[in-house]
Amino acid sequence: MVSQAGDYRTGFIETSRVSQTSSCVWEGEVVSRSKFGFLAALAGCALFAAPSFAVAPSVAAAPLNLAAYRGRVVYLDFWASWCGPCKQSFPWMQSMNDTYARRGLVVLAVDLDRHKHNAARFLAAFKPDFHILYDPSGSLAARYKVQGMPTSLVIDRQGKVRYRHIGFMPADADHYERQVETLLAKKK
What we know:
Blueprint: E1 12-16, E2 21-26, E3 29-34, H1 38-44, E4 54-55, E5 64-65, E6 73-79, H2 84-100, E7 105-111, H3 116-126, E8 131-134, H4 139-143, E9 151-155, E10 161-166, H5 173-185
């Protein structure tokens, strides 16, 4: 059983010996499933109301506030220029942004590099047109309990984290996309 105080909700992990998977069940619905065992499913079970934040991005004059995106699905990604899997995730996030922005998806990528010039080199190679935010102190990453790079959270229209991914594997991209599509299909 996973249970925390504050904004956290409750859920539980169930393990199937038949399918050899562990799943996180939230309010009767399987929200994450992993072939990698209990701890991986537990990571996916970290459902909570996403903390609001305001961080000034590089291109916008006004700070972005997560609460401003209520009613939209947010793909929140924590990355750094030195992260190999991040280099694989950026083209995929751009594709997701291109495909689903009109349906209500917002991609926010939070850079954790201590030196902005490292991020600038990385971004020059990928040229994303989604929002980039900077968190060199790691304070935002700490609020979201980032444990690996990249860490992505998929936040529903009500502002609740529904899925968490630690790392990025191109083989799982279709699964990640189905999660986004599921949340986009839910209008309320």
